Amino acid sequence: MAYLSGVKLSFALYSAAMVKSALAITTITGICLLQNNSVCQEQRGTANGISTTAMLFFKSIAPIGAGALFSLAQKRQDATFLPGDQVVFVMLNLVALLGLVFTFEPFLVLPTAQDQSH
Fold first, then answer.
1. How many domains does the chain have?
2. Cα separation values, 31 from 63, 70, 74, 86, Å
3. Cα–Cα dist 35/39, whole Å
4. Distances in Å between the alpha carbon of 57 and those of 9, 14, 17, 29, 61?
5. Residue 2: inside a domain
6. Per-residue pLDDT tens over the stretch 57-82
7. From its phi and psi, is residue 14 left (phi > 0), alpha (psi between -120 and 50) or beta?
8. Structural domain of residue 108, as residue ranges?
9. What is the pLDDT of residues 22-44, one digit of tens each?
10. Among 9, 56, 69, 70, who pairs with 4 as Cys (CB 3.0-4.6 Å)?
């Protein structure tokens, strides 16, 4: 990206923003589907309310955490283990990995046959 300029740079940035938005929409939709399939019909409203509240809470504190993480990264420019901006990308990858792991069966609560019959 450092060698791009003008229209090529704009196209690359707009494309990256569109891909990011598409992935975010797909992720949120997938999580809602997983949640709605694991909760019985009578409890879906409560589960959706709790998950929306949690999502909005973490969206509100995320800028504070990101600022602290970037500040830490700037202080660690000469560190031997995870120097500088590598800390940021390692943390982002760990959060993404944690989200992926929680979608597997040992963590994901599946509905029982009794829950599906109601």
1. 1
2. 22, 28, 34, 28
3. 6
4. 34, 28, 24, 18, 6
5. no
6. 999 999 999 899 899 889 888 888 88
7. alpha
8. 7-117
9. 988 988 888 888 878 878 888 88
10. 9
For residue 1, give every residue at least 6 positions away whose Cβ sits within 8 Å of its Cβ, in sequence order, or none.
9, 12
Asked, for residue 66, whether it belongs to a domain, the answer is yes
What's the rounded Cα separation, in Å, for the pair 52 and 56?
Answer: 6
HEC-encoded secondary structure of the chain: CCCCCCHHHHHHHHHHHHHHHHHHHHHHHHHHHHHHHHCCHHHHHHHHHHHHHHHHHHHHHHHHHHHHHHHHHHHCCCCCCCCCCHHHHHHHHHHHHHHHHCCCCCCCCCCCHHHHHC
